[in-house]
Predict the structure.
Amino acid sequence: MSGTGTSTSAPSRRAAPGLTRVRRVDDDGVSVLVGDDRPLDVCLDGRRIWTFWTRRDTDPVAPVDALARGPWPARRAVWPKPLRAHLNGTGRITVSDSVTGRELFDKTVTLGEGSGPIRVQNRRGVDLGIDKSGRLVPTFASRSDRDIEALLDATDAVLEALREAGVEPFIAYGTLLGAVREGAVLGHDSDADLGYVSSHTTPVDVALESYRIQRALAERGLRIARYSGASFKVMVSEGDVTRGLDVFGGFFDAGRLHLMGEINTPFEREWIYPLGTAELDGRPMPVPARPEKLLEAMYGPGWRVPDPAFKFTTSAHTIRAFDDWFRGTQPGIRYWDRHSHYAKRKPPRENPSQLGRKAAAVAERIGATEVLDVGAGRGRDAIWLARQGLRVIAYDYVPRALDLVAEQARAEGLDLEVRHLNLTDGRSVLAEGARLAQDSQPRVILARHVADATSSVGREALARFSSMALRAGGQLLTEFHPTYKTPPGAARVPDHTREEWMIGRPDPEVFAALLRKAGARGVRVVNRKPTTRPVVRVVGVWRGAGK
């Protein structure tokens, strides 16, 4: 998605570019003497790989000379984590002002061990850059005219499919910005965005319509992954790159436009419809009747000035409204979506977890030949279990994190399948559970750090999914960080060990009760590690297997 929130005023763009100086570029990052807060482009051998703002995205550093003690503070922009792994070798680094184009640094530098040229590419040799979400992805600047044509063809096809589904779509966010401001796709962008405004005025009807549209597109053979009750991604291939084409639904109510991604602002319907057109790389595309009005709502009054590092802010009220209306089925999605990009480049650890070993032992004991790894993550346990001769289905909320493991499994001839499962989406749980229930065989389900990474709805769904998948018997093995229990009369101790991915700390006894309600027998709760961050194991046995 090219935009994820209603923007506030961008950082000051008033000039004084001479007040900003780049001191050095080294393994730590880019050191600058800062005047006004300005966006700077960092290029490798003439190709942009990153953009940062000189104040917003930097940290102060101690002055090293008299110049740095002057009126311009010394600050450092640290290399983004996904970019750091590629910065090993020698290359020409240039740093320029994004707004004026003024060059502030141009030198050949050696980073890391300095062996060979620096290459910021994926395993297929496709050039990568940091997008505004901090992901290292193939941006349009590195793609050929042929690739862009393929993307535009796919965009046209999805637009037509949406029209046939009964809505009037238009290009939105970064795609709209590129068409209106530059007449071309933005070089620093990495996806394409479409929007539509429903004729409905209540969130439930908008969500029902969005699912109907998804079914219509799926019948045309399009691959779709859902973001929320009113937005989804259509997967399109362009050369050797697969991108997501985002489709955002919206609606009008009481003079306000609510558009996923997340616009919530006073707006006039005639600013959207009837649609007009704008050229995007020579291709006419549908745009709102007053595109500048929508762009201002998305990017603020400074939308006409390029800013590859633009960041959105969204009011707490808007976040709460969209969460309540549409996003209850996507807890923690931004975290897992972001980390899936790292997982695709880093092989999983060779050794399994203790719970993975336990799953293999249980499968052998009860005669099960299939293990379901729910919340498989990078696939550490999944591929190890497959190497033991078991059939493995690796489920995940963001299954592309398992792309590398799937490739390894194919290369080794292993029986490992990757499938999507969203425990907070009843459609996903019931459809997959019903599919498994038709194939009656004992199974083992492995769910490591799933109960604490999902909501109470997700924990209830895990119990229901287990009851369907283990219809012929089997065991569910779970581990998670449990809730803290403060002794009576003791002061509550602040939780300093909560991880970013945690939705909560489930109560083991409450979770065990969910398993019993779902038909499990012999439910056991075992406290594994009496530390400041304990881990509890809860095992549920379904009739027909185990003791």
